[in-house]
User: Fold this.
Amino acid sequence: MEQIAKSNPRSKPKSKPVSKHRHKIALVGGGNIGGLLAQIACQKNMGDIVIFDINAKLAQGKALDIACSEPVENFNADLQGGSEPSMLNGADVVIVTAGLPRKPGMSRDDLVESNAKIVSSIAKHIAEQAPQAFVICITNPLDVMVGHLQRQANLEPQKIVGMAGVLDSARFRRFLADEIGVSTKDVSAFVLGGHGDTMLPLARYSSVAGIPLPEIVRMGWISQKKIDEIVERTRKGGAEVVNLMGTSAYFAPASAAIAMAQAYLKDQKRILPCAAYCQGQYGVDKLYLGVPALIGASGVEKIVEINLTDEEKILFHKSVEAVKNLNEILEKLISQNKV
Ligand code: TXD
Assistant:
């Protein structure tokens, strides 16, 4: 009888050969968002899933648990969990959530030092194992972490984006739809700038069934005062959830990142608000910032430059400065060898 090789339980898990027929999605961070990313990606039949986490047992447990939902959910995917960097090998998409979430009272900016260290540690794994992947960074403070990850992993800028704008605009759309009394599907909304209190939800570029929001105000469906309140609620949407749940949001962020991954994997040419690498657009150079980006099979295929009024320019500039200041804090930490 053929000797069945006794696998040494302590042997390193071998990275499964990359399926020739399915995409491979690697989730770096298997926490609240990472686990949901794995489940949503499976249920949308997006490909094989790897959950990589410093807490190997957490990653293995979530991979196993989701894998056992396959017979019921009727998707088709191999799932792997663990803490071996080789698991990332050959990934088509890498979604990074490794990092600490906010606690009540914390700002996203309070996470710079701790999360920059984590991002530095995983950047080399991505560079070695999946340099061709489309990388979506979620870890906060987002606009700074995506730039840090791009530099540390030496990735092509158009192949790495930050997820925030899709989430922020989804919140904006939800609040507007509830107030106007229409389906969220018929509300399109725009958010520009950094993922923080200086973000710029743009009512002027938002619409209901193609009717510009200012016209909706003229039609009496919603007041300008209410729109201003909703803009402010959108800006503080993350903190609202943190104060309710005691930790950062994870359902809507996971859905937002999956939409971005699908735009890449299916070459959908979607225009999505992403933290993308600006090289002169909006007067911003060599900086990641939330802008409308066309996402397709090449990654960020175009950054869409919209006209801004003088007032919008002032608010946008404030957001740019906030992101630049945070980058300066990071550079200082790096110069002090703290990151
Ligand atoms: O819109 C956005 N971009 C934001 C981002 C929306 C919501 C949450 N935002 C941020 O995402 C949040 O502030 C955090 O920085 C990340 C991840 O949030 P999540 O809620 O998923 O945090 P968890 O549940 O703590 O998960 C983080 C996981 C956890 O399992 C750790 O063990 C793992 O990250 N981790 C690591 N994995 C691999 N390698 C290293 N070094 C590592 N360090 C921690």
